[in-house]
């Protein structure tokens, strides 16, 4: 091969390698879930002195309109000054959001799921050091024709105390995109149908303006005030 031809081939390889390098950041951006948020979270039972347990969820997720698949990162943190005792994190799905897998965690049997939930996983965190955090990749599906919620309780290893509970907090959008490859959803936003037209999605959830008093009360309980929905299972 002539030196000139070798130079052309080498130049092509360099160009290909450079192209591969600059493509990677764009791939990472596609998976960006935005800043993590503790929205919808509150302390329930008092944690040991010096221990402050919290959780965060991504500020936004994206649902594939064809497969209904999505991914969420659930993070538990110890923002205190002392190490925690052994703890566990639960990842529970409600309504249109169904948790299908949480890496490193075990599925909760249907009979042990909290009332109103459709899926859940139990993650043995162990002792979490002061200032440390642990994240879990969550696989889920989201029915865009419904409201979808997720809940993250942080409990003692035996489940008798709930130190923190985030949710059930909704993911959703006020501007659905049925013709797009994916629909972005925001944390703390109820999912809404698209406006009138041929691409209209089914209406999601109950109309809050006409919700009967009894149903409204039930909705507030499911919203996760002080961990009421889990309290009945602490003795298990």
Folded structure, characterized:
The strands form 2 sheets. Strands 2, 4, 6, 8, 9, 11, 12 and 13 form an 8-stranded antiparallel beta sheet that branches. The chain starts with a helix and ends in a 5-residue tail after the last helix. Strand 11 and strand 12 form a beta hairpin. By secondary structure, it is of the alpha+beta class. The protein is built from 3 helices and 13 strands. 18% of the residues lie in helices and 39% in strands. The protein is globular.
Helix amount? 10-25%
Please tell me what the overall shape is.
globular
Main sheet specs: 8 strands, antiparallel
Look at the helices and sheets and give the structural class. Answer: alpha+beta
Number of helices: 3
What share of the residues does DSSP label as strand, in percent? Answer: 35-45%
Instruction: Tell me the radius of gyration.
Output: 22 Å
Q: Ends: how far apart?
A: 76 Å
How many β-strands, per DSSP?
13
* Low-pLDDT runs: 3-31, 194-229, 231-236
Can you give the mean pLDDT?
77
């Amino acid at each position: 091969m002539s030196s000139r031809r070798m130079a052309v081939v080498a130049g092509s390889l360099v160009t290909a390698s450079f192209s591969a390098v600059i493509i990677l950041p764009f791939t990472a951006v596609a998976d960006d879930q935005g800043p993590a948020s503790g929205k919808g979270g509150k302390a329930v039972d008092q944690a040991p002195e010096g221990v402050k347990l919290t959780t965060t969820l991504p500020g936004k997720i994206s649902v594939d309109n064809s497969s209904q698949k999505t991914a969420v990162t659930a993070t538990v943190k110890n923002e205190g000054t002392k190490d925690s005792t052994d703890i566990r994190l639960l990842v529970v799905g409600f309504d249109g959001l169904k948790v299908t897998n949480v890496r490193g965690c075990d599925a909760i049997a249907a009979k042990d799921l909290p009332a109103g939930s459709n899926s859940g996983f139990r993650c043995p965190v162990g002792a979490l050091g002061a200032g440390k955090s642990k994240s879990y990749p969550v696989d889920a599906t989201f029915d865009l024709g419904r409201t979808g919620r997720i809940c993250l309780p942080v409990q003692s290893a035996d489940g008798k105390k709930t130190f923190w509970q985030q949710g059930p907090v909704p993911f959703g959008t006020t501007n659905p995109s049925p013709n797009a490859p994916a629909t972005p959803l925001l944390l703390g936003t109820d999912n809404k149908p698209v406006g009138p037209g041929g691409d209209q999605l089914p209406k999601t959830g109950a109309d809050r303006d006409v919700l009967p008093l009894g149903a409204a009360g039930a909705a507030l309980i499911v919203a996760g005030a002080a961990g009421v929905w889990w309290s009945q299972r602490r003795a298990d």
